Amino acid sequence: MQRDFQLNRLHQDPDKVWDIVVIGGGATGLGIAVDAASRGYETVLIEQADFSSGTSSRSTKLVHGGVRYLAQGDVSLVLEALHERGLLRNNAPHLVKHQKFIIPSYDWWAGPFYTVGMKVYDMMAGRLGLGPSEKLSREETLEAIPNLDEHQLNGGVVYFDGQFDDSRLAVNLAQTAEENNAVVVNYMKATGLCKDQNGLVCGVDARDMESGEAICIYSRTVINATGVFVDGVLAMDDPNADPLVRPSQGIHIVLDKSFLQGDAAIMIPKTSDGRVLFAVPWHGKVVVGTTDTPLSAEQITLEPRALTQEVDFVLKTAAKYLKKDPTRQDVLSVFAGLRPLAAQKDDDGASTKEISRGHRIMVSLSGLITIVGGKWTTYRKMAQDVVNKAWMVGGMPERKCVTQSMPIHGYVKNTDFRSPGYFYGTDLGLINAMIRKEPELGERLHPDYEFTKAHVVWAVRHEMARTVEDVLARRIRMLLLDARASMAMAPAVAKIMACELNLGTKWVDGQVAAYRTLAQDYLLL
Question: Are residues 15 and 159 located together in one domain of the fold?
Fold first, then answer.
């Protein structure tokens, strides 16, 4: 997957009318591109920054049915999510794994209450379930999580959900779309919509953010899948359009694995303000979150920042359940993401944690198709629903969705999740072959982490990484795992990329400086 090759396909015939143009390269947009291309529709996807650089790389790293939605009575969403969780586990077994969760019980009534609830969750998952839930004694709970706070602990409930690497899945989806003949281009920003004499959308005006070159991509349908930015694209179509998004911010802190001994994750179903809190093992660290802070449209940005009160809330809540209280000095990285929650006309100012995570599809009078809401777990179903609308709006032949059982790039059925680099799937063998051919590529970027020069070369040659941030934040995840260590890696990464991209020392210096500025905001000290 190479950017120059993708651009050449766009420029070969400037007057070509594609079937579908997707604006947005997050989970939703990439899923749509895979669905449309695999049905045989001629598809283009453009993304203003890097794939999954916004919300889709900043999740809690869970593929889950949504226990809290069950508690809210949103049964249809839970059923859909549990079904999709099972399909994603089957289609991307190199990225999605079973994760044991424990709900600790500190009240006498909580154990039976949550045991019944999780049995309902199991039943709804059916044959796509990941394992049976069961009640645990106090001793069994502490055996599973030795450093859980023992004071007044009665026991716990164990259940199973899915865990994954979000931006690695995004990259694999882009590769899957490209393998199905879609054109996918990052750093290509939609600047306007093309319309015919009847006022119907017939394409997208875009600008290459690297070269500055403008292009019009003509198409039968245009899909607005830009997440928290959907209202901006809607305004290109109709400046008076009602907003569709109620943005909400969630933050996570990353701690050393010593804070959560054992392989189980913790789920706190109800914190002091009614939120759900997770502490989840991930790539040898622990991800703790999340918050749910309503934002205004003016606060939407590509690089959101964690608020002091959000960090304090996560640390304070985690300290109630862990023997060792985490402090700001213990945080290896803190990251924030924006949720594109679908606005409800009758929500009457409801808090964002009460707004459904279901998705909503709207077709404007101009024919622009917009999707908002949803979550990673249901990305495939969202894509299916959108493409079903697209062939009708665009007057294209109906073709059945084939993604329910379609392997995603990197597919390895029996993945050893203890093996370094397992999340590369089939590509791991190719990376190792590069190292055997050029042993110097096996040199580590940092003595404490497994990533090598070969991973950088691979990201540039085959995963369309264009900046140091692309590599460290989304290809090897170091910005989230250990922001300070990632800063130490930046100069070596920049030099390797410059060699691959035929760029000079000025580019290297600029990239290192920009990355260090970015990474400072992921540190609390």
Answer: no
Query: Would you state the pLDDT for residue 5?
Result: 97
Residue 316 lies in a domain: yes
H-type alpha helices, 259-373:
308-319
DSSP secondary structure letter of residue 120:
H
DSSP conformational letter for 474: I
Closest CA to 100 of 64, 150, 60: 64
Gap between the Cα atoms of 101 and 122, Å rounded:
13
User: Which residues of the chain have a pLDDT value below 70?
Assistant: 66-75, 108-118, 121, 127, 273, 344-357
- Mapped onto helix, strand or coil, the DSSP state of residue 200 is coil
Give the Cα separation of 101 and 162 in Å (integer): 10
Same domain membership, residue 145 and residue 71: yes
Tell whether 228 and 313 lie within a shared domain.
no
Ramachandran angles phi, psi of 53, nearest 5°: -70, -20
Q: Could you list the residue range(s) of the whole structural domain that residue 465 is in?
A: 426-520
Residue pLDDT, tens place only, 266-276: 998 777 767 78
Contact between residue 250 and residue 257 where contact means Cβ atoms under 8 Å apart? no
pTM of the model: 0.94
Helices 27-38, 379-393: axis angle to 10 degrees equals: 60
Q: State the DSSP string of 238-269.
A: -TTPPP-EEEEEEEEEEEEGGGS-SS-EEEES
From the list 344, 163, 169, the residue with the least C-alpha distance to 243 is 344
